[in-house]
Amino acid sequence: MSEVTAPISRFDYDKVAIVTGADSGIGRATAVALAAHGFDVGVTYHRDEEGARETARQVAEQGRRAAVRRHDLTDPVTAAEVIDELADELGGLGVLVNNAGTGTAEPLLDIGYDRWREVVAVDLDGPFLCAQRAARRMIDRGAGGRIVNVTSVHEEYPRLGAGPYCAAKGGLRMLSRTLALELARHGITVNTVAPGEIATPMTGQEDRPPRPGTRPGYPLGRPGDAREVAQVIAFLAGPASSYVTGASVFVDGGLGLMGPQAAGDAEKDLWASA
Q1: What single-letter DSSP state applies at residue 162?
Q2: How far is CA 174 from the centre of its chain?
Q3: Whose C-alpha in 14, 27, 70, 174 is 20 to 30 A from the C-alpha of 54?
Q4: Domains in the chain, start-ordered, CATH in brackets?
């Protein structure tokens, strides 16, 4: 029998990654993890330039180059130009991680249309336009690539007060699947990573290590750590994931498995006032 050389043994695509919203939390952990896997990293931020510079410093500690840009996805058309700027500065683009996001805590009957559009622009329109820019560059290069869209367990499960966030994340899942079909012939894979509760500033936990036993309703009994999510993203960004596309990988400590179980065990309707 002739020996078959598996495509997972090499990088054909550029070892340059862009991680949006990489000034803290999952974005920072992902940038550092990708640097540890040999990627130069473009780091974007919205408001926290100091946090983005700290991420760049940690990338440099891994012996890789970093470039930083401000990235305001409330204006997604202009923001998408940053993808080309970073790719030009770093000399290519093999991986895009759409991580930046925002959310709400208002009932749908109370939320204004402008706020609805702002969340959808950041969480869905922005990732689409950034992925479009990245994919065009990857296709022109002809060496394939990886797009990883960070969604949430709310790409599948709704949450009170988070209507536009849930709608956008669900839309991003279906966008990712459609992109996976359209880009497969170019050797570009597209997947989503759906975190549950992760101990980051976004969840008010300031990157503290999650404490065991603090979430009795979760099968693993704790929030996740940003580095746990980052390692899944790094796998999907690497050559070993070459046959994975159109997938949603839940990194939620089993939280999603508890829907019917938790509903059956609830003795009060406190969930309705969340």
Answers
A1: B
A2: 15
A3: 14
A4: 10-273 (3.40.50.720)
